[in-house]
């Protein structure tokens, strides 16, 4: 089943959809970096290797998120139901927003729902949290891949 879904990703619809979702997620990840400390400050505090690493992680995470979006959309088209692993891309983004995002925004958000706390300085401009978000995306991808290979209903495939 996963092979069928991979073949369908070459269709124009999925290429366009994947490109748009990739750009949106990439923009969101870059926005989070800017709201954190920004690339100029990151270069001054940690040097170019951290900035390049963050940009590469942003590209990788946006690609995985967009690919999971396309796989999920294709799975819904073929089976009529969504895979349970697809929530991981949204969860990873939310995790990133709440951990290495705009600290004043996070404090304001949590205080509106009754949670108050002191925010500690995040090491390496939030890089460990971005790596955790990447791990969540990878886990979600493998979960989604497992679900696509173990679909509970019969589908018609093009031979």
Descriptive notes:
- It contains 7 helices and no strands.
- 75% of the residues lie in helices and 0% in strands.
- The model is unreliable at 114-120 (pLDDT under 50).
- With 159 residues, the protein is an all-alpha fold.
- It has helices at 2-8, 12-36, 39-46, 48-79, 87-100, 103-112, 127-149.
- The chain has one domain (2-148).
- The chain is elongated.
Distance between the termini: 12 Å
**Average of pLDDT:** 75
Q: Globular, elongated, flat, extended or rod-shaped: what is the shape?
A: elongated
Helix content: over 70%
In total, the number of domains comes to 1
Low-pLDDT segments, ≥5 res? 114-120
**Broad structural category:** mainly alpha
In N-to-C order, the SSE pattern is HHHHHHH
User: What is the subunit arrangement here?
Assistant: single chain
C-alpha-based Rg, rounded: 18 Å
Fraction in beta strands: under 5%
Number of helices: 7
By DSSP, the count of extended strands is 0
Give the biggest beta sheet. Answer: none
Topology:
Elements: H1 2-8, H2 12-36, H3 39-46, H4 48-79, H5 87-100, H6 103-112, H7 127-149
Give descriptors for this structure.
single chain; 159 residues; mainly alpha
Concise summary:
The protein has 159 residues and is mostly helical. The protein has helices at 2-8, 12-36, 39-46, 48-79, 87-100, 103-112, 127-149.
